Amino acid sequence: MHILLVTSAYKSKFNPVNALFFRDQAKALRKGGNQVGLICALPISLKTVMKEKEINFSKEQYNDEGVDTLVKPFLAIPKTPNRTKNKRFSISKQLFKEYIDKFGPPDIIHVHTFLAAELAMWVKQQYAIPYIVTEHSTNFARANLSQSQLKFSKQVFENSKTNIAVSKEFCSLLEKQTHCKFQYVPNVVDTSFFKPSRKVKNTEQYIFLNVAHLDAKKNQAGLVISFANKFAGNKKYKLIIAGDGPEKENLQAQIDKLKLSDQVVLFGRASREEVLALMQKSNCFVLPSHYETFGVVLIEAMACGLPVLSTKSGGPESIITSNEYGFLCEENELSDMLEQMVVKDFDSVEIRKYVQNSFSENAVRKKLEFIYGE
Predict the structure, then answer these.
(1) Which segments of the chain have a pLDDT < 70?
(2) Which of 8, 37, 165, 222 could cross-link to 116 by cystine, CB 3.0-4.6 Å?
């Protein structure tokens, strides 16, 4: 089968670690013997341009482990959503025409988030190629969508052959908001990459790890306070926060104010290889977010054999289904649950086995191929 993924975000010269779970799914489908392509008209903010000191918006075209990939960044002007939407659509159409000229028309288009679906609706009308949608956006839970965006999302979902959400909680939320049917298919993790280290971990220090964009919705500030409540001054315990974002300076100021600089480390933006190394040397992964539609970092950590702790934020409820894998908690319980993670014995082999059975490339690919076949 020939599958074309159309995504709202993707890795690029502006951010090489952006939306890697889209890439993992594309690679998983390719490994199943499918012909797979991916196109993305990628909006880039002025802030990102200034930060990365990158002004080259040229198209990025390459074969990524068998996945034919076309990514075209473009400048997104602040407070001009209609311009961004029109620009995305225009570039997407050009990328699609280039793609089918070179690789032929796909059998089906798989859209990741409704924002990129204008192309899919146009292709359905012009080429009679069906599309399905997987929705990821936390903006539905955060009530951050305008009325025009909500109207457009409903139009996308009504015209799709199948609508997918990446957690059971998110399915329910989307069905309530859009009155369209959704089914649950989780994100995928590359268990051949994310795996435990053969090295023996340092037993003299217990390391909590968080990997996420440094943004208020990810609630790293709450995690730092919760850690301080139980472990401040006890250097046996350490917290590493990997990522970059607008909250970086505020978090560092908070760490300094709480006199935690010897225990809490802001690692900065981490490559995938660096994330793997951090997970392999840590004892527990913590996701304290206010909102998550899934939480792919949880299954990456669990594939490395790590127990996980997460707030009940929407997506993790479909991942942490047993206390044998970790704990779910309310945000005001985070301090106490950090303490409980330290004293409970977890079986890293069973944690990894659970991920392999539920979220591996093979497990998720089979679910998607069944949907494509229908």
Answers:
(1) none
(2) 8
